Prior knowledge:
This protein is an alpha/beta fold and 265 residues long. The chain folds into 2 domains: 10-201, no CATH class; 209-263, no CATH class. It is 54% helix and 15% strand. Strands 4-3-8-7-5-6 form a 6-stranded parallel beta sheet, sandwiched between helices. It has a two-stranded antiparallel ribbon with strand order 1-2. Helix 3 crosses helix 8 (173-181). The longest helix is centred in the last third of the chain and has 34 residues, at 230-263. The chain is globular and about 50 Å long. The termini are close together.
Amino acid sequence: MQTGTGYPVIVKFRGVKINAINYSDAYGLIKHIVEANDKGYVCMTDVGNVIAATQDDGLYQAINSSNLSLADGTPLVWYAKLLGCVEIERISGLDIMSKMLSERDGFKHFLLGDTEQTVDRVIEKAGSLNETVRITGYSPPFKDFDADDNRLIMEMINRENPDVIWVSFGGGKQEKWMLQNLSGLERGVMIGVGAAFKWLIGDLILPPKAIQKLGLQWMYRITQALIENPRKYGKLIVTKVLKRKFLFLWHFPGEVMRARREYRR
Length: 265
């Protein structure tokens, strides 16, 4: 296992890093960056993104260059525990967002992504979680950003001077965007949380705890998507979601054996 100065144990699956960490330690490290007036970004890494990163150099670099890559998936927690990382826990985008918005630490939060209506509802929900929270946000145009778009977004963020920037562009896109635009950030921590805005306000329904513990939340989401629009999501589920799950399971035994040999050295 690898460690960095002041950072927790890191495990790797097919070269993609996961910080074997719980929420308390993750929050402590984010708080340290904020209080030092430094900057950085955090990736919420699930099985799909791990496999995608092995096939996409840009995503691979984005995840491995992050300050933290947190296990947003029960199978990744199982993998780390098989390597002896007993402290690791699954931390989803919703988990870290709802907990940090509830912390009475005086942090200023900035929401980036989704629709204006969703941003407004998240701000309202944050106020119900913590009446002292400071939070604002921006819904950028739904398109591929060019250099001018990114410059304007970063200028807006820097004017607001937030401590934490919640980035909701979707898995894969948000990780690359955070790495690409880190140099333009003056201070604060960007955290890519995917669909957490919608989870937080209840537009997406969480699976029962028993399903989450079994690592089958992805199957629950697939079922929801197929019920909603089988034509729209059917091909995507087969070509991306199920294929990536299969590849993860295919490599799992070999990665456990490789990592155990490596970490004994």
